Structures are given as structure tokens and as C-alpha cells.
Amino acid sequence: MKRSVIIQGSSRSHGDTNKIVNYIATNNGIDIVDLYTKNIGHYDYDYKNESDDFLNLATHIIETYDTIIFATPVYWYSMSGILKVFFDRISDLIRIHKNTGRKLRGKNMAMVSCSNSDDLKEGFSMPFVESANYLGMNYLGDIHTYIENDIINNEVKLRIDDFMASISKTM
């Protein structure tokens, strides 16, 4: 059976993005990795942070899951800093741990964004689409969600359910 994981990249483990992530995970049997609980240093060309959590986490994800869903709040019109650091560190898998990085080829990627309104700006998904293309991954698509009055409204739940049904055909 193919397995999927949601990589949550938020500065709050139990914030709005987590509400969306838990809704998706619970209804679809998907595991969650919360990047906020990990020690992942910024990318550097000298590989000074080789002893942080990145390599073990990335290796586990690559060896365990076929589909990786990135979930991020919208911070200043782009993905969260925590998730951006994770993306930057994928360079370690291209430069240093090439055999591990090559195993991303053929895997699936999707993205879920979250904010407080239905107002995602055009182009938000570009780093995800182009990263998937560069890494040889299949980009399944993306969805923007939002939380109003601390809840997921029925319109957003339906949007999520439709999205998950559409990508589950390839997961």
C-alpha cells in the first residue's frame, strides 16, 4: 500500500494550519511531520549543520512515503520560513547525499496553504511546482484553505475533500 505524509511547516504546532492538517490526516489516514518540533538549520555550503535533524528526517520520509504533502501557512505572500529552510536543505540531498536525493524521483508532491481568508495570490504554488519538476517528482496539485472564527467552514471542508479525492487516484 502506498503511504502519504503531510509535512507541516508552521511556527505554531497547534495553529490554523494544524487544524487543516489534522482534518486531512484524520479523514485520509495520512501521517504528519511537524517541522516546528525538529532542529533543522539553514542551508550552508560548508555543511556545518550535518548533525541536525534534517538528514535523518528526509531519509525517513523518502524511504517510507510515496506522496509528500507540504502544508504551510501563508506568511508575507509565500511559504513559511520553517518550510523554506526545509526546502533549502533539499540541496544537501543534491550535493552531498545524492543517492538519497535521487530516490525522490517518481514520488508525488502536493501542497496545502492556509490563511484567514480565501485570498491566495497568484504564483504562490510556483516554488512547489518547480521544485517537484527539478527533483523528478509528480506534482499532484495544490489547494488553498482558510480558517474563519477558529473553525474550518463547510465550504473549505468540501474543497479539501474534493482535492483529496482528486489526488488520491495517484497517491
The proportion of residues forming helix, as a percent range, comes to 40-55%
- Report the sheet with the most strands, covering strand number, pairing sense and barrel closure: 5 strands, parallel
Q: What is the overall shape? A: globular
What would you report as the Rg, rounded to the nearest angstrom? 15 Å
Distance between the termini: 10 Å
Mean pLDDT: 96
User: From N to C, what is the helix and strand string?
Assistant: EHEHEHHEHEH
Unreliable sequence segments: none
> How many strands?
5
Query: Structural class, from helix and strand content?
Result: alpha/beta
Strand order of the largest sheet: 2-1-3-4-5
DSSP helix count? 6
Proportion in β-strands: 15-25%
Structure report:
With 171 residues, this protein is α/β, with parallel strands linked by helices. 40% of the residues lie in helices and 19% in strands. The protein is built from 6 helices and 5 strands; from the N terminus they run βαβαβααβαβα. The protein has helices at 16-28, 54-64, 81-95, 98-102, 126-135, 154-168, and strands at 4-8, 31-34, 67-73, 108-115, 138-146. The protein has a 5-stranded parallel beta sheet, sandwiched between helices. The relative contact order is 0.18.
